[in-house]
Amino acid sequence: MCCRQRPMHAGFTLIELLVVLASISLLASVAMSRYVALSDAAHRAGVKGVGAAYGSGVVLAHAQWLVNGGSGAVVDVEGFGAGNVDVSADGWPVDTAGGTGGAMTTARCMRLWNALLLGSAPEVAAAPGPGVQYVVSVPAPRRCRYAYQQDAGGRQIEYDAASGVVTTFSPPASKEGWLSWPWRQDA
Known about the structure:
By secondary structure, the chain is an alpha+beta fold. The chain is built from two helices and eight strands, in the order αββαββββββ.
């Protein structure tokens, strides 16, 4: 026994453990911020897609009104969707229950939502609830507003029945701003 060997310690030092924990925390925070950004982008894209589909429905109903003669208010425009969309004297969709004039109501806006989106409509209601994706309101006599409920981003779609313009709104904090379909993009 000339030399005594020290016993070997198996394991990590405290410093090594702290470095590993700090690295894992950093990676987790980067991953979480990316996930949140992707989730926000998905919600924004979903609302923009629904707004574009709604705008397309408005334009198609108007186009069918023009093809049918384009004169005055019409109840049940033939050749569009289920044939139950009613248009104003200017040819813009306003109802599906025989109404061609007067102010928009939440009931009229909900009926239009389902008729213009032609069967692919997300759930809409007058008040938030389970499964409701959009809540409808009437901010002005000839406007329908559909507020997105799946996140707190303040996203909404608005339809102006006097002009046929459908506008999709993302909050000012986003890079998207206002996007109007089909004719203009506001800054």
